[in-house]
Every structure is written in structure tokens, then in C-alpha cells.
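User: Predict the structure for this protein chain, please.
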Amino acid sequence: MTLPVVPAGKLPTRAPEQRWLVEQVWSAEAVGIIGGEPKCGKSLLALDLAVSVASGTPCLGRFPTARAGRVLLFAAEDPLHVVRERLEGLTAARGLDLQRLPLYVITASSLRLDHGDHRDRLCETVAKITPVLLVLDPFVRLHAIDENAAGEVAPVLAFLRQLQRKHHLAVALVHHARKDAGRARPGQALRGSSEFHAWGDSNLYLRRRDPLLRLSVEHRAARAPDDLTLELCADPLVLRVTDTATTTAAPPAALSPAQRIEHALATARAPLGVRELRAACRIRSETLCATLDALATAGRVIKSAAGYTLAG
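Assistant: Here is the predicted structure, written as C-alpha cells:
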């Protein structure tokens, strides 16, 4: 029996408004990673995404939810009362009633994606609940495989891809980054096999930049927004966008590229990355990078894993 084939001109299309689950943050029916080092807010970001989709409210208070619907969540590390407290805080901050949200929590003591019977039970649960988003947090608690072995990781990720395609849902998988990966690109900093980075359609990466957090977004088939600076707010515990780069005062147009960079760094509240500097200085990437190299060589700016700062 041959494989099904269709002329390219008859491939299905999707309207722009149907391409997002959450605009700029997560594509419709996308699988992907919410990654970062331990204790940098990954689980809270995953819960924020879950509440946003279940309620139809903006993610992080900024990004509109394009497709609201049921959400299914498995939080493997936190006790159920902690999950509830966090969800109540997130919903209270938005003026929502948690009891009214179509947000369902798997209460099983364990879920092993490398066990056939557990995969079958998850498939049956997804078929029953019909969520538009499945959140699994974190991957390390969902298996007993070697995360560094592509041959062991790939079948587990393939199962989640099959689940996504069969039930037309998005899958957000929380996963740790390496503790020593501060200088690596976000996707390359993920712990274990490179299969994780290759697998995702939409990926979110968090890095701690005390006292703030840096969020990088990555999409397979869409333009990603510039990196965002987040702050962790208490009572209730929520993440907020601070817009370090966009809140800096715009430099006068008459300044040279070097002066514009120094002006942006002087008015920023945290180190700035290349994307943030490009937005703040409004100069071309090629010019920006060349000028940064010259400033660093002259000792006028300092480059670190967190970004660029003024020397002295």
C-alpha cells in the first residue's frame, strides 16, 4: 500500500488568527519546552500559560489568548495543595474564580511516559477531557530513561507528538536546563539530548538575572518576540513583564551608535542583550554588534552571560 500523497497546491491552509494558541508565545497545536535552570519560575510560567488558555485571558498580562479551552495539567513535583494555592493566586490576580475554569489536574501519584500502560491511560484521559493544552511538569519526573541518550528520549517525545496530532492539542513540557549553561544559547542549554530542542514547535526559556528573569521565546514557523524581562511578584505569586529595554529613554537621534548604546545601558535597570539593545538604540544589528565589540575591546562595556553593562 502506498503512502497518501496530495499536490502541494491543495495542502490545507490556516488563517492567521488560527495560528496561535497564545499570540507570540505558543503556536496552535504546538509541542514544546518550557525550559530553564532550577528555581527560575518554569512551573509558575507553565501555570500562567494554563490559566491563560483556560480563561481566555492574556498570558503574563500581555499576550492575548487566541484559542481558549480546556487545559489538562500534571504537576509531578508539587503537592496538590501547593498547585491549588498557586492557581488561586494566578486567578485572583486576574479577578477570576478558579472553580469556574475548565482546568483539570491529574491527581495520579505518578505518570511514566516510558511505560505503555501509563501512556494508554494518558491517551484515554486526553480523549475524555478533550483539552486544547496539556501541561506536563517536569519531564525528569515522567520517566526512568537516560535523558542524554537520543535513542531513549526520541520515542517518548514521539509519543507526545502523536498525542498532539491525534487529539489536535498543544503540549507544553517543562524541562530543566544544565546548571553550567549560563553562556549557551537557550535551546542548547537544555539538559540532555539535543532531541529536546529539535522537538519543539514553540519553546520558552527562562534565565535568572537577579533580581529579574529573562524570557526568550522561540518558534519553528513564526517570528519570535524580542527577549522579555520578567519580575517575580509576591502576594499573589505571579510573573510580570517589566520591559527593561522598552522602558529606557530613547537616545537622541544625533548621538553616534556608541553613544546610543552607552545611553541605553546607563538608563537600563538590568543588563541588556543584543535584541534589547537593538530595540532601545534603533540601529542595525550589524552596526550594533560591531560597535559593541569595539566598546568591549576599549573596556567601556562589559559582556556577561546576563547581557551588556557599562564598565565602572
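Residues 257-310 form a domain with the Arc Repressor Mutant, subunit A fold (CATH 1.10.10.10).
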